[in-house]
């Protein structure tokens, strides 16, 4: 499969795309632990069907120390016993924040309360920004049919 557009991060990249990549770097440097950040990015990407991001975040999560079992079970996190309550609350927030059109109320108060019970305001802000960012990047990749499979961890650092 060939991409409809080729994104480049070099000097010839459009300014807006370079700024977008800078946002991604800033989120990677934020307060969320690398493993949680990658699990959230992976789950959002799975929901959106973004193959290139599933490839990228699976490999980045493994490089951050996530086990194969946890990576295989992230799509079924509700039934899996390998995630902490804080991770489960973050994954639930990620799902509702990604599927906002599926519920008339968007992210429900109960989901927010569970996330807030496990994450302070700094982490909640980082989660909200990461979930929003991943949804945008997923849409860019799906719209332009970016191929998956060749990501090398740490490529974008």
TrEMBL record:
InterPro entries: AhpD-like (IPR029032), AhpD_core (IPR004675), CMD-like (IPR003779). Residues 14-96 form the Carboxymuconolactone decarboxylase-like domain. Pfam families: CMD. This is Carboxymuconolactone decarboxylase family protein. It comes from Streptomyces catenulae.
């Amino acid at each position: 499969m060939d991409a409809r557009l080729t994104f480049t991060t070099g000097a010839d990249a459009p300014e807006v795309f370079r700024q977008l990549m800078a946002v991604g770097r800033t989120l990677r440097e934020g307060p969320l632990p690398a493993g949680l950040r990658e699990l959230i990015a992976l789950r959002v990407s799975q929901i959106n069907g973004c193959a290139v991001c599933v490839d990228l975040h699976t490999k980045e999560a493994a490089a951050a120390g996530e086990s194969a079992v946890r990576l295989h079970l992230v799509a079924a996190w509700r039934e899996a016993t390998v995630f902490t309550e804080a991770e489960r609350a973050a994954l639930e927030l990620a799902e509702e924040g990604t599927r906002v059109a599926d519920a008339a109320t968007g992210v429900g108060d109960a989901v927010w309360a569970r996330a807030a019970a496990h994450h302070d305001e700094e982490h909640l802000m980082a989660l909200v920004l990461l979930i929003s960012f991943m949804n945008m990047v997923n849409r860019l990749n799906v719209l332009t049919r970016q191929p998956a499979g060749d990501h090398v961890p740490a490529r974008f650092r």
